[in-house]
Amino acid sequence: MQLFYKVAKILLSVLVLFTILVPLSDAQVEEQLLIKTVVVIGTGAIYKGDSARAREAAVSSSLILAVDMVTVEILPIKSMVRNFKAINKIIYSQTGEFIQGYKVLAEFPAKKQYRVMVQAAVSIKVLEEKLLEAGIMVAKKVMPKTLFLVAEQHFEDNLLNYWWGKDSAFFEAISEVSMAETLTSEGFAIIDHDNVMLNNGFYTVYGKPDLNNQEVAAFGDLLQAEVVIFGKSTAFILPNIMGTNIRSFKGSVTVRAIRTDTGAEIASTTQSAVTANSDDIAGSREALSIAGALAGRELASQIAAAWQQEDQLPVMVEIVLEGTGNLANFIKFRRTLKDMPGVEEMQIKEIKSDQAIIMVSFQGSAKKLADALILKIFESIGINIYEVSENSLRIELVPG
Hints:
Elements: H1 2-21, H2 26-33, E1 35-45, H3 51-74, H4 77-82, H5 84-93, H6 95-98, E2 99-109, E3 113-123, H7 124-133, E4 145-153, H8 174-185, E5 189-190, H9 200-206, H10 213-222, E6 227-242, E7 246-259, E8 265-277, H11 280-312, E9 315-322, H12 327-338, E10 343-351, E11 355-362, H13 366-374, E12 381-388, E13 392-399
């Protein structure tokens, strides 16, 4: 009988272990990814000493705030403004449907207000479904194609190493790997520079560890990047020692993000990490890796915010169009232009015998509009984009 109980106990342990190790199904993983956990603070007014009711009101307001926060993340501001009344009706009347669970982390009853800190799990899936049912489109934000130019110096090196140097094509910074992994998890497309072939003329201009913003932007544009993360990372040994073997190492990362279409800096950060290890190489690598991960998280947040804001603010692009003497070709071009993604409004500013000036409200830069136009197929005509500036294009209609 004792043997039976022992065998049963072993089988039960194996069954429990199997239950723990069984991987989640694709549907379960997707469900988890569609839930956003946020921490918010809610308040409720204490009326006639009724703290219990004030607490309920505080929790209720915090749950509404949690749904508000997630809604702001998944909707562009223009859509929020345009549909503000409808969105408020959805959130306030159906708050409970979006909350998958919550926990009060802390609470504090003051004289006139009851304050609570609440951790809430909000269902992005349900929220998106309700918004779509109301005719409110949920835009999926596409993050920019990103190139890394990070020079790195380890504690045993005398100089910075960088992959775009003439004799360093296969070098990859440790901090870059961590940053790239973090940005990839946030939806960024990372350009692989391992197989990039550069010529001697390139090295003459860009083959150096220090570049200005315009050089960085031009470099990135050559490799079809939309954003370049440029900077350096260093690792060195600290004087702290424990026993005979354990030493301390510090990794430091300083980087900035540059838009390739404008050369503007849209993000920057400096991060550092300290580790301890008996192995000098392993300790310095770990410090660089941790510092890189910290920098990646900060950059992802800053770049995403800048990218979102860029989409919310359309620019006016002036198109000087040559070859409009053929009215049919002019009409074909206008029709195609009007139907292009990102074009909000179009207005003819001036018409001459063989030239027209068109003002276009476009979600992006003039260069992005030019990039989109060059890929378009126009019925029986072609286009020659022969000048692209910050806010204007000069285009010639060419007979097909």
